[in-house]
Amino acid sequence: MVQQVTKGIKISVETSFEGTFFKNYRMHFAFGYQITIENQSKDSVQLTTRHWKIYDSLNDVENIEGEGVIGKKPVLKPGESHTYSSGCLLSSPIGSMKGHYHMVNFTSTKRFKVTIPTFKLCAPFAIN
C-alpha cells in the first residue's frame, strides 16, 4: 500500500493483478486498484476532477482527465473517507500510475490539488 497526505487529505492505494487476455490480437494485462480518500482536515471538501498519468513499460504515457471518480463527486466532512475501486489495462506486465484530484474546500471556497502517489502495477510473474 502507498499513502500520501496533501493539505489534510490522505490518499491510500492498494493494487492487484487481475489477469491477462487477448483482444485485437494483442495481449493485455489487467490491473485493479482501490483508493481511499480520507479527510483529516478540519474543513469539508469535495472532489471535483481527477487527472492520471499511466506509465506502461511498452507504451507512451497516457494522460486521462475526467469529472469525479467512477461517476461520483464525493463530499467528505472532517474524519470521513470515500473508497472506490477501478482498473486499467496495460500492454506489458509492468507499469505505474500517479495523478491528482482537484478538490474544493467548502469553508474557504478555494480549489486545491491533492497528490495521488505513484503506485506500481506489476504482474506477479514479472517480479524477479
UniProtKB/TrEMBL annotation:
InterPro entries, per database record: ApaG_domain (IPR007474), ApaG_sf (IPR036767)
Domain of life of the organism encoding this protein: Bacteria
GO BP annotations listed: error-free translesion synthesis
Any one Pfam family match given in the protein's UniProt record, by short name: DUF525
Span of domain ApaG: 3-128
Family matches, as SUPFAM superfamilies: ApaG-like
NCBIfam families: PRK05461.1
Annotated protein name in UniProt: Co2+/Mg2+ efflux protein ApaG
Species this chain originates from: Leptobacterium flavescens
